[in-house]
Write a structure and sequence with these properties.
Blueprint: H1 6-23, H2 30-45, H3 48-52, H4 57-84, H5 87-111, H6 120-127, H7 133-142, H8 144-148, H9 156-172, H10 176-189, H11 197-219, H12 228-244, H13 253-258, H14 260-274, H15 278-281, E1 289-297, E2 300-305, H16 311-335, H17 346-365, H18 379-390
Antiparallel strand pairs: 1-2
Helix pairs in contact: 1-4, 2-4, 2-16, 4-18, 5-7, 5-9, 7-9, 10-17, 12-14, 16-17, 17-18
C-alpha cells in the first residue's frame, strides 16, 4: 500500500508466492483454477504480439508485470487465508489493515496539511489518492454481527469511533471512485444489484436524481481552479465527459487535462484503426500508445505510454477482442454471485455478496483507473481470500 514502486511490489509478491508454495503443502481446488482461467488466457494472449511485432524489452517486461500481477495477487490471497481456514482471521486482518490505513490518512490530512487553504489536488497528492481496503474494512465491521454472529469490536464506543474514522477518511480522499465504490458496496450487500422489476424502478429513480444533480451542477458556475468542496464538485461535473468525450483539443491544456482518460483511449483506438488486424489479438506486450505530444506524466515528459486509465481499452489495445471479452466474462462471473445468495449459510451468503461487490466495483473502476490492472491494488488480495473460503463454506 505504501511502496511507491509497482515493480518492487510485484517482486515482493512473486517471491512471497514462490516461497509459500515451496514451504507449504497446499491443495488448490479445481474451481479456483476455473475462476482465474480468463485472466490466465488474457495473460497468454499478450505473448502472441511478440511474434508479430518488435518492441523494446523494458516495455515488454512492464506489460508482463501489469497482466501477471492480478493472477499473483489472487493466488497469494487464496493461499494465505486457505491455510488459516478461519473466516474470522480473514475478516479481522482486512479490518485492522483498513482501520490502520484510515487512521494514518486522517492524521496526515487533519494534522499535517493546511486543510482549509490547500487545494484538493495538493491534499490528495500528499496524503493519498485512495485506499479501497478502507471500504472493505468498514463493511466487514458494519456487517460483522450478521455475518459472523458477533461484532468485530464488542465495545459500543470503540465500534462507533471506528465507523466514524472510516467514514471521515473515505470522504476526505475526495475520490469519486471511492465514493461510488462505497455506494456500490452498500447496494450489493443489501441485495439491490440483483436485476429485478423492483430494481429497475429504483434505477429509474436513481437516474432521475443523477440528472437533476447534474442539471444543478451545470446551472451554476464552478471554477476549475477552486479549492475545497467546489473543486470536488467540478471533478464530479466533468466526470462523464472525462471518460467518453470524443472531440478534444490537444492544444487547449484545460480541455486536454480535463478529458485525459478519453484522450488516451481515443489515441489507442486511432492506432488500432491503422492496423485492423490488431482488433483480433491486440498489439501485444510492449506496444505503446503514441500521444502525439510530450505529456508531463509522472516525473518526465512522455510521448508514448504503456498503460491506459480505461482498463477496457487497455486490454483491447494489448489483447484485442478476445482479451476484451475474457475480461468481461471474468468480471461478470464475479458479479453473478449476487444471483447465488439464496442460502441459510451466512458465511457463504456474505462471501458471495462481497465477491459480487468486487465484480461490480471492477466493472466500474475499469472505466477510469484500469480496474483489475491498476498497478497497486489491495482488493485483488481480498478476492483471493474470498475464493479460498468459497471452497471451505
Amino acid at each position: 500500500m505504501y511502496l511507491p514502486s509497482y515493480k518492487t511490489n510485484f517482486l515482493l509478491q512473486l517471491l512471497f508466492l514462490v516461497f509459500t508454495i515451496k514451504v507449504k503443502k497446499i491443495k488448490i481446488s479445481t474451481s479456483f483454477y476455473k475462476q482465474i482461467l480468463p485472466l490466465v488466457l488474457i495473460f497468454g494472449i499478450g505473448f502472441i504480439g511478440l511474434f508479430l511485432n518488435t518492441y523494446e524489452l523494458s516495455f515488454v517486461l512492464k506489460d508482463i508485470i501489469y497482466f501477471l500481477k492480478p493472477i499473483i495477487a489472487i493466488a497469494i490471497g487464496y493461499i494465505v487465508f486457505y491455510k488459516n481456514q478461519e473466516l474470522e482471521v480473514f475478516v479481522k486482518s482486512i479490518f485492522y489493515i483498513g482501520v490502520l490505513s484510515a487512521s494514518i490518512h486522517l492524521v496526515g490530512v487533519l494534522f499535517f496539511s493546511n486543510f482549509f487553504k490547500s487545494s484538493i489536488s495538493e491534499i490528495r497528492g500528499d496524503f493519498g489518492l485512495d485506499s479501497f481496503i478502507e471500504i472493505f474494512g468498514f463493511y466487514f465491521l458494519f456487517y460483522s454481527k450478521k455475518w459472523l454472529g458477533k461484532r468485530l469490536i464488542a465495545d459500543n464506543t470503540k465500534y462507533w469511533v471506528c465507523i466514524v474514522v472510516f467514514l471521515l477518511s473515505i470522504f476526505l480522499y475526495f475520490s469519486r471512485t471511492m465514493l461510488i465504490g462505497f455506494l456500490l458496496g452498500y447496494l450489493t450487500i443489501e441485495g439491490y444489484t440483483k436485476i429485478t422489476g423492483h430494481l429497475l424502478k429504483y434505477i429509474g429513480v436513481l437516474i432521475l436524481l443523477v440528472i437533476l444533480f447534474y442539471t444543478y451542477l451545470f446551472s451554476i458556475k464552478i471554477h476549475r481552479n477552486s479549492n475545497g468542496i467546489e473543486a470536488f464538485l467540478y471533478k464530479i461535473k466533468i466526470a462523464p465527459e472525462e471518460i467518453f468525450k470524443a472531440k478534444i483539443n490537444r492544444d487547449n491544456h484545460k480541455d486536454l487535462w480535463d478529458h485525459w482518460r478519453a484522450y488516451e483511449a481515443k489515441r489507442a483506438i486511432i492506432l488500432m484503426n491503422e492496423h485492423k488486424e490488431s482488433y483480433i489479438l491486440g498489439c501485444g506486450y510492449g506496444s505503446l500508445v503514441n500521444l502525439k505530444f510530450k505529456a508531463p506524466v509522472g516525473e518526465e515528459d512522455m510521448k508514448y505510454i504503456s498503460r491506459l486509465h480505461n482498463g477496457y481499452v487497455f486490454v483491447f489495445y494489448k489483447m484485442g477482442v478476445f482479451g476484451f471479452f475474457l475480461l468481461l466474462y471474468f468480471l461478470i462471473g464475479l458479479y453473478s454471485k449476487t444471483y447465488n445468495i439464496e442460502t441459510k449459510n451466512l458465511k457463504l451468503l456474505y462471501n458471495n455478496k462481497f465477491i459480487s461487490f468486487i465484480g461490480i466495483f471492477y466493472l466500474f473502476s475499469s472505466l477510469i483507473i484500469s480496474g483489475i490492472y491498476i498497478p497497486r491494488d489491495t482488493i485483488i488480495f481480498i478476492l483471493g481470500g474470498f475464493l479460498s473460503f468459497k471452497n471451505l463454506c
